[in-house]
């Protein structure tokens, strides 16, 4: 149905539609609302995406967005344990799925509920948008939980190497630090600093509310107005993150030596912002290199016994990203051997390009992934959440069109442009208990 067939309140301005999804702006406070009716199952997903993530943090309060994520489940003005209606209890009692996640460019809070309980989810999310308690007595125990999460990451060779590669590749831009933050910031950030961060970014004009599933649009929009409409537009402009990463002028290397069983090689190259047209091509290239049994790395690395698995990291971000090949080595395999294979494959594509068969297979794999991202209201909301984060929710609805346009020549061109030594950051994870068998970094 068109937006004209179901009249919404005059306070909502229709912005655009794409792929069946409609965008509105709630005029009184600037809240963006996305809606998609889907009556195939009696469930609805509510997701609130805040345009704030670790990208908006600085020295002294890295990890603030993530710590706030934990604290915002500890109670708000109208939903708290003192009133007997704590957030978790309210939602779990009706069989809802509920959680939140934090990343570089965004934080999202979501509920998947039986359709008749959509109002309760909207009421809870609206309440904690501006009325979260954020008490010091809650920060202390949650800090311990977050620190334990940090320490689990420290025990993962991949997590440790990934964190160090990003910290080496990015010197000025806040992608330098991971979403969870540095340990000393997690432990010592004052509650007042978290409250100030909350009061800077958690406003309707810095958020997108997405409602997907079994509901009537006019009714759902009325609920959004009823609850989120209580909040004003922020009194101050939301601060822009204006730091840009200087041009890299030579290869960078990092070695991490820790106790562990698995050696890992990561070969990374900086990529453009997520909405740049080359980001689509780079993601296709990643599939040609590492997706499936017929991929180049699988044939030249896995099949030859040099590694147990491969992870291609090419996720688009709001600002510059990274195209990283992670190779998890088999025992006795030397890091340099695998690094050389990766670079040789890059050189091969730069010089000779890819075949039409490889490109078509990568497009088919992408098409399947996009189909899965349409499988249910939560899948759609999650995919939209990531598109919102990089700057345009229609990235999700137009993605396959852009992928289909990509040519063999485009793939060769982006390899020539980005997969160059002066743009690289290479990292080795060297298990200490097996150090003698490894090369020196």
Indicate the CATH class of the largest domain.
Alpha Beta
Low-confidence stretches at least 5 residues in length (pLDDT < 50)? 1-5, 434-441
Radius of gyration: 23 Å
Report the principal-axis shape.
globular
For the record, the CATH architecture of the largest domain stands as 2-Layer Sandwich
Instruction: Could you tell me the CATH topology label of the largest domain.
Output: Cytochrome Bc1 Complex, Chain A, domain 1
Structural class: alpha+beta
What's the total helix number? Answer: 15
Number of strands: 12
Number of domains: 2
Quote the beta fraction.
15-25%
End-to-end span in angstroms? Answer: 60 Å
Helix content: 40-55%
Largest sheet: 7 strands, mixed
- The CATH H-level homologous superfamily of the largest domain: Metalloenzyme, LuxS/M16 peptidase-like
**Strand line-up of the largest beta sheet:** 1-2-3-7-4-6-5
- What would the average pLDDT be, to the nearest integer? 94
The SSE string, one letter per element, is EEEEHHEEHHHHHEHEEHHEEHHHHHE
